[in-house]
């Protein structure tokens, strides 16, 4: 076709595009700088959208924080599922949980790894905040995943399986806390090794 002399119009951005850009910007800033230190203006500027666009997609900053937490949960779940595809049996399933946490720690964060983004956010939220409930559900789900895998190793012993799963959950959370303070995944690798040893002794 010949040139008509009319400049092509850029494609219109869909509303969902703005939401995704806002969530991506919020995820970067909340993890790097913290929720309280990150204002709406900072998020909209980084996302490249007008402030009104944020309120067209989220009812408040608290709503955006909850969406961020949901996104972190879904992100981790995706990592776990990919690891689980490579795992075999109950032992492999438990180690897939540890590996998914290590995968999260290996992301290229702006200021380096600072620990569990969910717990970091929960620490900033007041008691009773809906965001804290999101984080609690995530941690409970992780422990239940561990319990399910341990039950494969201890058929007919549900109470023992629950006890071992709680032990593994504490090991994992402690390793994440130390890894976040140290800015690397060495503690997670050590925790995985300790978990493997524990499972081999069941």
Question: Can you describe this structure?
Answer:
The model is unreliable at 1-13 (pLDDT under 50). 74% of the residues lie in helices and 0% in strands. With 202 residues, it is mostly helical. Helix 1 crosses helix 4 (61-86). The chain is built from nine helices and no strands. 32% of the residues are buried.
Descriptive key words:
202 residues, mainly alpha, elongated, disordered N terminus
β-strand percent reads under 5%
Question: What does the overall shape look like?
Answer: elongated
Q: Mean pLDDT, rounded to whole units?
A: 91
Give helix % range.
over 70%
Radius of gyration using CA atoms only: 21 Å
What kind of assembly state do the chains in view correspond to?
single chain
How far is the first residue's CA from the last residue's CA?
73 Å
- Overall structural class, as computed from helix and strand content, comes to mainly alpha
Tally of helical runs: 9
N-to-C series of helices and strands: HHHHHHHHH
- Residue stretches low in confidence (pLDDT < 50, at least 5 long) are 1-13
| Largest β-sheet summary | none
* Strand segment count: 0
């Amino acid at each position: 076709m010949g040139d008509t002399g009319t400049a092509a119009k850029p494609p219109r951005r869909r509303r969902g595009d703005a939401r995704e850009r806002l969530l991506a910007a919020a995820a970067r800033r909340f993890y790097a700088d913290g929720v309280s230190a990150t204002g709406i203006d900072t998020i909209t500027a980084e996302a490249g959208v007008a402030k009104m666009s944020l309120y067209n997609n989220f009812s408040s900053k608290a709503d955006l924080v909850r969406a961020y937490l949901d996104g972190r949960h879904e992100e981790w779940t995706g990592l776990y599922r990919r690891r689980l595809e490579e795992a075999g049996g109950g032992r492999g399933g438990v180690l897939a949980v540890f590996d998914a946490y290590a995968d999260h720690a290996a992301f290229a964060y702006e200021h380096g790894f600072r620990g569990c983004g969910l717990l970091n956010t929960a620490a900033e939220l007041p008691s009773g905040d809906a965001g804290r409930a999101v984080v609690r559900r995530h941690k409970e789900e992780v422990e239940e995943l561990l319990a399910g895998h341990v039950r494969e190793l201890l058929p007919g012993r549900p109470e023992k399986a629950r006890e071992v799963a709680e032990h593994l959950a504490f090991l994992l959370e402690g390793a994440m806390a130390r890894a976040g303070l140290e800015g690397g995944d060495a503690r997670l690798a050590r925790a995985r090794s300790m978990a493997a040893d524990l499972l081999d002794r069941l």
